[in-house]
Write a structure and sequence with these properties.
Blueprint: H1 8-21, H2 27-35, E1 56-57, E2 63-64, H3 67-76, E3 84-88, H4 94-100, E4 105-110, H5 113-125, E5 131-135, E6 148-153, H6 162-165, E7 168-178, E8 184-191, E9 197-205
Parallel strand pairs: 3-4, 3-6, 4-5, 6-7
Antiparallel strand pairs: 1-2, 7-8, 8-9
The chain binds S-adenosyl-L-homocysteine (SAH).
């Protein structure tokens, strides 16, 4: 349990230990989490909970993902420093920031203008210059920049993300929550280099749904 007198560094160190004990063991992923101040991505009301291993509400009725899930998904992507990555569902931008530290370029899409704008400011504050943002429907992907080495989807699609799989390189990896209900299967698709994919289930997750089109409200 966190003690209110703990420094952010102590809380972060405790969080990283907790992630490691749950199976996020990739040193690069843990280092990226250690370098990324989650409190910057958390709304004022929940800032003192930034170092807890839980999802938290953000604007527009969305959520910033649980750090363990961010670690698990990032690890499953098996990123390489030269990778060009597409992320669907920028949200707070926290997951984007972690990706940006482990890859060459991150293209990230969000359907709420407000969230996109706030995330862009955070990328600037942190000096993350390898993130390219787009306000739009991530279900369509980003055809002009395809194919991607890696694709990460952080909103649940009800069916196989076929359109996004078409924007993946033949030996690429796509990680996405798939399912219609409140609990979805976290799936990892790995290209076999010949146009086919192997599919692996990584566990059960709870993501907000991937919705069609851009949001009309801000
Ligand atoms: N990775 C984020 C979590 C975001 S929650 C973080 O760490 O904060 C999922 C996000 O996906 C929400 O912001 C939601 O608005 C967005 N989203 C849902 N459907 C989308 C779509 N079709 N295109 C782009 N973004 C979408």
């Amino acid at each position: 349990m966190a003690d209110a007198s703990d420094t952010p560094q102590t809380r972060l160190a405790r969080l990283v230990l907790a992630l490691r004990s749950q199976g996020v063991t990739d040193p690069g992923v843990l280092a990226a989490i250690e370098k990324t101040p989650r409190d910057i991505f958390t709304p004022d009301l929940f800032r003192d909970r930034a170092w807890e291993d839980s999802a938290l509400p953000i604007a527009c009725g969305q959520t910033i993902s649980q750090p363990f899930i961010v670690g698990l998904m990032t690890q499953a992507l098996t990123l390489e420093p030269r990778a060009r990555v597409l992320e669907i569902g920028t949200g707070s931008g926290y997951q984007t920031a972690i990706l940006s530290r482990l890859s060459r370029l991150v293209y990230t899409m969000e359907r709420y203008r407000t969230l996109m704008g706030e995330a862009e400011q955070r990328f600037q504050t942190l000096g993350l210059t390898n993130v390219i943002t787009r306000f739009g429907d991530g279900g369509e992907g980003w055809p002009e920049q395809a194919p991607f080495d890696r694709i990460l989807v952080t909103a649940a699609s009800s069916d196989e993300p076929i359109r996004l799989l078409k924007q993946l390189k033949p030996s690429g990896v796509l990680v996405a929550p798939v399912g219609k209900g409140p609990v979805q299967r976290l799936l990892r698709y790995a290209g076999d280099g010949k146009g086919g994919f192997t599919q692996e289930q990584l566990g059960e997750v709870r993501f907000v749904p991937m919705l069609d089109g851009v949001a009309k409200e801000l």
